[in-house]
Specification:
58% of the residues lie in helices and 13% in strands. It is α+β, with helices and mostly antiparallel strands. Helix 11 (186-210) packs antiparallel against helix 12, helix 11 crosses helix 13 and helix 16 (342-377) packs antiparallel against helix 17. It binds zinc ion.
Length: 424
C-alpha cells in the first residue's frame, strides 16, 4: 500500500498564475516578496525557498525535485521532510496549482467555537471597505506632487515659519493653553480632527499609490479600546526600496504637519482669543500630539513600521513578542525560533519588552476608567468588570497566539510579511 506521504512525492505542482514576484535586497541577501493579486496577500521567501517554487514547472515531480536537491543519499530524508512540509504550507496559502487537494480535517463543534474565538481580537477590531483605490485615483493630481522633494522643502519652510511665528508671540502661545479650561468649541475642534484623520489616511493611501501600490482596505478601528482609522497598505511590501515604504508610513503625519502649520498661521493672524483663533490653537495642539503619538514605535502605529524598516527586521513586532515568550522557562520551549543572529536577538528582546510595557500603559488608563464607571453605577460593577475583562482577554490571547505562531520564524521559507495597516 502506498502511504499518503509517499503519494505526495509523485505529484507535480505548478506555481499559480496571477502571482507577482519581486526581488529585494535584504542587507546583501536576496529576499523575494510574492503577492497573490487575487487576495492581495503577500508572502516572503528566501532564496532557497524561491528556488523550490521556481522548480515547480508542472512537469517535475516532487520526488525528482527532492532527489535533485539532496546531493548525497543520506540527505534525502532530511530534504524530503523539509520540502514536504514547505509545499504543504505554500499549498495551504493557495499559491500552487496541481497536486492532491489539501486535506481538510472534519471539524468538531469545539473547534468551530475555537476558530470563531480566535478570529477576532477585541483589542484590534476593524470595520472597513475593500479596495477604495478608485475613489482615490482622481485625487492623485493634487496629492502626488506633495510626495516629492519640492513638497518636502515646502513643508520644511512652512514648519520653520510656524516655529518662527510661535517664538515671535511666545507669551501668547503659552497663555493660549489656558483656553483648554474654558474652550466651548469642542464640536468644531472634533469636526476638524475627524477631517484631519481622514486626510491622514488619504495621505497613506496616496503615497502607496504614488509608488505603484494599490490600497486594499480602509476604515475604522478600535485599537487597545481607542477609536481610530486604518489604511491597508500591504502593497508597499512590494516596493523595491524600503525608503518608499518609509514614505508611505510617514505620509499620514506628513499631511497632518501641513495642517499644523496652517493652524499656527490662523492662530497667529486672527484676532487674539476670538473663536477661530481658539479653534486654530486647540487644533494645532491636538495635531502635534497626534503626530508625536503616531511616531511612537512601540504601539502598532505608523512609527512601528518606520522602525521596522529602519532596522531591517520584518514583522518586528510579532517576532519580538514571540521571542520574549520563548525566553520564559517551560512555557517558552515550543516558541524557540531558529537561526536568529545576535543582532536580531538584541533588537527583538529590547523591542518586545518596551512594547509590552507600552501596551500595559496604553490599556491601564482606559481599563481604570471603565472600572471606575462600572463600580460607580452598579452594585455588581466589579463582577461586571471581571466578566467583561475575561470575555475580552481570552479571545485576544487566542488570536494573538495564532498570529504570533504565524510570524514567529523568519527565513524558513513561508514566512508572511504581516499586513501593513497604517493605524492612527
Ligand atoms: Zn498613520
Amino acid at each position: 500500500m502506498i502511504e499518503p506521504a509517499e503519494q505526495q512525492q509523485d505529484v507535480v505542482y505548478r506555481l499559480r498564475d496571477g502571482l507577482v514576484i519581486v526581488e529585494q535586497d535584504e542587507a546583501g541577501k536576496p529576499y523575494f516578496v510574492v503577492q497573490d493579486t487575487g487576495t492581495g496577500k503577500v508572502y516572503g521567501f528566501n532564496q532557497a525557498s524561491i528556488k523550490i517554487l521556481r522548480a515547480l514547472d508542472g512537469k517535475t515531480t516532487v520526488s525528482e525535485l527532492i532527489a535533485r536537491m539532496s546531493g548525497t543519499p543520506d540527505a534525502v530524508e532530511r530534504v524530503r521532510a523539509n520540502v514536504t512540509s514547505f509545499l504543504a504550507k505554500v499549498q495551504r496559502a493557495g499559491l500552487l496549482d496541481g497536486g492532491p487537494p489539501a486535506a481538510s480535517e472534519p471539524v468538531r463543534p469545539g473547534q468551530r467555537w475555537m476558530a470563531a474565538l480566535t478570529k477576532y481580537n477585541p483589542f484590534y477590531l476593524k470595520l472597513g471597505v475593500k479596495n477604495p483605490s478608485p475613489v482615490f485615483r482622481p485625487l492623485s493630481k493634487v496629492f502626488f506632487p506633495i510626495f516629492s522633494y519640492p513638497g518636502l522643502m515646502v513643508l520644511a519652510l512652512l514648519f520653520a515659519g510656524s516655529i518662527f511665528l510661535i517664538t515671535r508671540d511666545l507669551k501668547r502661545f503659552w497663555y493660549s493653553f489656558l483656553i483648554f479650561q474654558f474652550f466651548r468649541w469642542w464640536v468644531a475642534a472634533y469636526a476638524l480632527l475627524f477631517f484631519s484623520a481622514v486626510l491622514h489616511e488619504t495621505g497613506h493611501a496616496m503615497a502607496c499609490m504614488r509608488f505603484g501600490g494599490d490600497v486594499r482596505a480602509m476604515g475604522f478601528i478600535l485599537y487597545l479600546l481607542q477609536p481610530g482609522c486604518y489604511t491597508d497598505v500591504t502593497d508597499s511590501w512590494l516596493f523595491p526600496s524600503r525608503v518608499h515604504r518609509i514614505v508611505v508610513s510617514l505620509a499620514g503625519v506628513y499631511i497632518e504637519s501641513f495642517l499644523f502649520t496652517f493652524a499656527i498661521g490662523v492662530w497667529y493672524w486672527t484676532p487674539h482669543y476670538s473663536a477661530p483663533n481658539q479653534i486654530a490653537f486647540i487644533f494645532a495642539i491636538i495635531l502635534i500630539t497626534r503626530i508625536l503619538i503616531n511616531l511612537i514605535p512601540f504601539l502598532r502605529l505608523d512609527g512601528y513600521f518606520i522602525l521596522s524598516d529602519l532596522v531591517r527586521v520584518r514583522n518586528l513586532r510579532p517576532r519580538a513578542f514571540a521571542y520574549v515568550i520563548s525566553l520564559i522557562p517551560w512555557v517558552g520551549r515550543s516558541w524557540r525560533a531558529t537561526r536568529l543572529s545576535r543582532r536580531e536577538k538584541t533588537i527583538l528582546l529590547l523591542y518586545g519588552l518596551v512594547a509590552v510595557a507600552f501596551i500595559v500603559i496604553a490599556l491601564s488608563a482606559t481599563v481604570g476608567k471603565v472600572y471606575g464607571i462600572l463600580t460607580h453605577w452598579s452594585p455588581h460593577g466589579a463582577l461586571l468588570f471581571w466578566t467583561l475583562t475575561i470575555g475580552m482577554v481570552v479571545p485576544a490571547a487566542l488570536s494573538v497566539r495564532k498570529m504570533l505562531l504565524t510570524y514567529r520564524s523568519d527565513g524558513e521559507g513561508s514566512q508572511h510579511p504581516a499586513a501593513r495597516e497604517a493605524v492612527s
